[in-house]
Amino acid sequence: PLAAIMTSRRRAEKLPLRIVCYSLLSIARGRPVGSMRGGGGTSFLSNMCRLRGGQHGAAAGETQIFETVVSSEVTRVATSPFEGQKPGTSGLRKKTSVFLQPGYLENFIQSLFDSLPDGELRGATLVVSGDGRYGNAAAVQIICKMAAAHGVARVWVGRDGLLSTPAASCVIREREGGVACGGVILSASHNPGGPDADFGIKYNVRNGGPALESLTEEVYERSTQIREYAIVAGLPDVDLSLEGRHVFVDEKGGAPHFEVEVIDPTEDYVALMASLFDFDALRSLLRRPDMSLVFDGMHGVAGPYARAIFGALGVADEALLNCIPSEDFGGGHPDPNLTYAAALAKLMGLTGQPAGGEPPVLGAAADGDADRNMIVGRRFFVTPSDSLAVIAAHAHALPWLARQGGLRALARSMPTSGAVDRVAEELGLPLFETPTGWKYFGNLMDSHLLGGADLSPLLCGEESFGTGSSHIREKDGLWAVLCWASILAHHNVDTPEGQLVGVEEVVTQHWRRFGRNFYTRYDYENVDAAAAEEIVERLRAMGSSFRGAGYGPSEPQLLQDGFALATIDEFSYRDPVDSSTTSQQGVRLLFADGSRIVLRLSGTGSVGATVRIYIERYQPPGDEYALLANATDALRPLVDLALHLSQVRELTGREAPTVIT
Fold it and tell me: Pick the catalytic residue: 35, 43, 189, 464?
């Protein structure tokens, strides 16, 4: 009787026979079926599921399926180029209002799709998700429709359009054995979100890592010549809150031509973390009465992952702060540093005694897309450079590295301090100094696939609060926090209650063994681009005069406070894997005692320029008083020299930096 009713309704609704057959099978198996015509209301077939008395949800362990009958006709929309669609260090970042211009996003996506190898998208699986900032959900819908127009068979989208950047890399690499061809990640990372703030987009390739400069340059070139973009305009928006397969069938009765599968955004990533770390050991640590942890999600996409992981480890909900994603990050700036994570800094006792007694033992924060991290101990801040070095020195305490026989290589970005260099030297490991940008680390991780040495497991990091390893091809904020928890667990296996070894003790022990790299970074954000370039040009001219006067490593130039300048140059990098060259990556002033001043312009902002000045001085082990000195006092003479040589105050009109790290 049911078949007879459905056959008659098929004629009335003009449904393809295959949908009726599929629906009968689904009903027989207890599965729900939604069939909507071009995005209309609930269909007869969906109602039949209810009439049968079954749940309108998948059975346990099964994937829910929603079929929609649509027109698969590809529409080609005439357009013209937008100025400035040139990706920076981490993709294209602009003000949200720029991305909301009609055709702006479509132009960039078309330029991207046209730049991929011929046939790469045809029949492929593509990941599309983001950090949940304002405009994220609408952008996901547009990109899905454009993916359908370019022959993509399936798009994976995190529920509610959410995937952290590390999780997106994980999904590309791990889900179904790594079948995805790549992923479009919607994020401006640590930049603010909202209608008046920032939006961003980048492409990660098949290995899960950011596209190399050769691809992003081609995307930019195509964006300057674009004349049309392709889209399946008849494809309805997908309900991103419903996990399951949203299958689209052509109204002419053909086979399914496209689907969007909405997935649990945390599933693959949490499974990966559970395979890397000893969760039982971490539970034991976190059960100790003298151990406490607090995590600040900064209203970014890290929140759901923190709740899934730390909740499973026994951390109370009240210790997981700001862990509900917000389109505008709660009105804040989701950058995990002492300026923008001020509430966490106060809670950890860095800015006075917090209310409620002693601060937690371990504090941490992640940025908007969860790829950056800040580690804080009780009244103690860990610089990102020190964090990388400490994790490297404790590789033996990290289970997945121990299982693989230990580290094979270390790497850092050029502005990052040399703390990890000293660990590499003692452990006898190769150390690579790269430009800023995670794609350079990804090349090293995949060296063996390109005919080079096998450098994995590889540990790497950037001074800009980015730490990671070859487990994925992105920096990974929560992974770094789990590393630190594992290090504390290692140091406290047999420690009596009340004598727990904390973060400060771990770092101090490290300094006594390797020495200390005093380090600070001054950020001048949203500087006029012309003024920023003038600062760089001034230092370049200084370098020419320096060399012209015959100064160099063998005859340094004596400057104020006794600093002997041995070299002025611009960092250039020749990739040992693909032999590509990246130049003009920052001006370096290197001193005879190993101190450094580095100045570079950051490519992660959406307007103007960010001028970053890095100051570093090394203190060898042996002098306890000097090792434990206040960093501000230890660096003050070198900071004064950096400000004098760069003339940053005079050229920008800024009396103080926006952020000091």
Answer: 189
Q: Are strands 293-296 and 320-321 parallel, antiparallel or unpaired?
A: parallel
Q: Which two tokens stand for residue 171?
A: 């999904």
Coil/strand/helix, residue 36 = strand
Segment among 11-15, 181-185, 226-230, 439-443 with least mean pLDDT: 11-15
- What is the distance between the alpha carbons of residues 555 and 545, in angstroms, rounded to a whole number? 14
656: DSSP letter: S
Task: Establish how many alpha carbons lie within 13 A of residue 129's alpha carbon, considering only the half-sphere containing its beta carbon.
Answer: 31
- DSSP assignment of 43-112 equals -HHHHHHHHHT--SSPPTT---EEEEEE--PPEEEE--PPTT---BTTBEEEEHHHHTSTTHHHHHHHHH
C-alpha pair distances (Å), 440 with each of 92, 121, 411, 565: 18, 25, 10, 29
- Residue 451 CB coordination number (10 Å): 8
The answer to whether 361 and 349 have CB atoms below 8 angstroms apart is no
Give the CA-trace dihedral at 565, 566, 568, 573, to 10 degrees: -140
Task: Write down the pTM of the prediction.
Answer: 0.86
Of 368, 91, 333, give the one whose Cα is nearest residue 197.
333
CA distance 650 to 161: 45
DSSP string, 3-21: HHHHHHHHHHHT--HHHHH
Contact 621, 627 (CB under 8 A): yes
Rounded CA separation 171/386 (Å): 30
At a CB cut-off of 8 Å and minimum separation 6, what does 638 contact? 561, 563, 595, 597, 615, 617
Q: CA-to-CA distance for 607 and 98, rounded, in angstroms?
A: 11
Q: How does DSSP classify residue 556? A: P
**What token pair was written down for 309?**
């992981």
Closest by CA to 659, choosing from 517, 532, 526, is 526
Give buried/exposed letters for 44-63 (b at 16+ CB in 10 A, else e).
Answer: bbbebbeeeebeeebeeeee
Calpha distance 567→556 (Å, rounded): 8
For Cα atoms 20, 23, 24, give the angle at the middle one, nearest 5 degrees: 90
Token match 């006029």: residue?
528
- Distance CA(68)–CA(660), nearest Å, equals 53
Q: Kind of pairing, strands 33-37 and 244-250?
A: unpaired
Q: In the block, which residue shows the tokens 């006709």? A: 73
The verdict on whether 23 is a catalytic residue reads no
Q: In what order do the strands lie in the sheet with 244-250?
A: 33-37, 65-70, 244-250, 256-263, 154-158, 125-130, 182-186, 198-204, 92-95
Quote the mean pLDDT of the chain: 88
DSSP 235: P
pLDDT in tens, 414-441: 999 999 999 999 999 999 999 988 888 9
Bond before 496 cis per omega within 30 degrees? no
